Amino acid sequence: MADTANTAGTAEMRCVADLPGPKGLPLLGNLRQIQPGRFHRNMEDWAREFGPIYRFTMVRRSFVVVADRGLIASILRDRPDTFRRSTRTARMLEEAGTRGLFTAEGEEWRRQRKLAMRALTPEVVHRFFPTLAMMTERLCLRWKAALAAGRAVDVLRDLKAYTLDVTIGLAMGQDINTLEHEDNPLQRDIEFIFKRVARRLVTPVEYWKLFKLPVDREADAAAARIHNAIEGFIAQTRARMEADPALRAKPSNMLEALVAARDEAGSGFTDSAVIGNAITMVFAGEDTTSNTVAWLLNLLPQSPAAVARAAAEADSLLGTDTVARDPHLLERMAYLDAATQEAMRLKPVAPFMAAESNVETLIGGVQIPPGTVVFLLLRQAAERDGGFTEPAAFLPERWLAGAEGGADSAAASVSDPARKIFPFGGGPRFCPGRYLATAEIKMAMSMILHNFDFTLREGAPPVEECFTFTMTPSALPLLLRARGA
User: Fold this and answer.
1) Which structural domain, as residue segments, surrounds residue 454?
2) Residue 15 marked in a binding site
3) I need a labelling partner for 404 at 20 to 30 A (CA). Which of 83, 191, 195, 329 fits?
4) Are residues 153 and 47 in the same domain?
5) Are 193 and 223 contacting, i.e. CB atoms less than 8 angstroms apart?
6) Residues 30 and 170 reside in one and the same domain
């Protein structure tokens, strides 16, 4: 039996049935109490009521919820051997054609991890940087043109298009430019598949295994079209690498790196693994990055001093350029990095994770049978155990060395923020795309701060948290104005 550290201070061993939790209905359990789009909030509210380890039930199945930072860190360290990704989540993703690192377990995961890590090194991102700068400048020019013409800017829509362009550019070596062209077939298929996966994850009965509705048949067709498109991209990539063999040693995007690794003698990888990981990269990178930028744009105006400091930093580094032209400039954006960490603490795109026990194990003195789904409340654990002063306040200074600006030193004393919060997971399955995500966020935010003034629209309804596959803002009522206009 595996043993997860008992940081919750449980005095004696208990079983899942002994745990406290919300009362439910016969058969349905707590299903009727869970609100669409607010599942994360339901679980966080229950944690405040029932403590850091509790259970709830749905259709006679018990689920365990953990909101203790030490226990969560231990569970994350125990992947993929003691715990794995929820089999239901993995199954839904694989049905959509995303069989790659995200869904792999055990030895397959170890092999896939090596493949993904080679494709997402800082060196690969640096070689992709001119494309990232071009796409960021394209976003800036689009907004300036719209404002000059008196047109409204749909910031949330454009951020999603921008991050999709960047992610597909790196993952597949293609510039589909959804920012300016909304009718790209690949973009439509990808968006459709993602929505179907999110819908299926909250559908209690997997009816599509018994019979398929028209929307399910279209999902299958969309997945097949995506697969065929990436096969074509792989062929183009191989042709390009044959014409320029230096790309095998110095790939300029993730697909080139994946193909180079796959084509090595004895690699053990197939084109299917390349396709699965390319789709996984898009799936993992699109909404997560755009939503982080959106939440940061929602939080920053609450502190005019923070906006001024972040803008001054961007101005000093970008100078007369519209966007950062050197990737090393991003490393000098200390205040923007602190603001990003604070946004990810307050509004993480993944406020919880779902793990599933492979073997019988212990969590905080609670006996967990194999096959038990355990929800890890990442945000709630940081709030409960992080030791932050004014935990509800947006204070980027708390992440700076020495906790400048009068904030607490709880965060700034920790060199790796993942020890206080879990924006990129933790343990062996720590997100391999962290460097890219951070670079993309800094590129977009430094461009916005350097070129635009922005405030929240007066009288706009409060921005709500909506959870599907990630936590997204319900709206982004932002007023943009070109600086100097």
Assistant:
1) 97-350+423-482
2) no
3) 329
4) no
5) yes
6) no
CB-count exposure of residue 471 (10 Å: 0-12, 13-18, 19+): buried
Count the Cβ atoms, other than its own, within 10 Å of residue 167. 27
State which residues of the chain have pLDDT below 70.
Answer: 1-11, 402-419, 485
- Distance between CA atoms of 273 and 231, rounded to whole angstroms? 11
Burial of 53 (0-12, 13-18, 19+ CB in 10 A): buried
Residue written as token pair 């054609």? 97
DSSP states of 88-102: HHHHHHHHTT--STT
pLDDT in tens, 307-359: 999 999 999 999 999 999 999 999 999 999 999 999 999 999 999 999 999 99
Tell me the pLDDT tens digit for each residue of 444-481: 999 999 999 999 998 889 999 999 888 999 999 999 99
Radius of gyration of the chain (CA): 23
> Which amino acid type is present at position 271?
D
pLDDT at residue 159, as a whole number: 95
How many angstroms from the chain centroid is the CA of residue 47?
Answer: 23
Count of structural domains within the chain: 2
Query: 220 near 193, Cβ under 8 Å?
Result: no
**Distances, alpha carbon 278 to alpha carbons 116, 282, 286, 324, in Å:** 9, 7, 12, 26
pLDDT at residue 454 in the model? 95
Average pLDDT, the chain: 89
d(CA 305, CA 308): 5
What's the CA gap between 380 and 45, in Å, rounded? 9
Are the beta carbons of 196 and 204 closer than 8 angstroms?
no
What H or E segment, with its residue span, contains residue 72?
helix 69-77
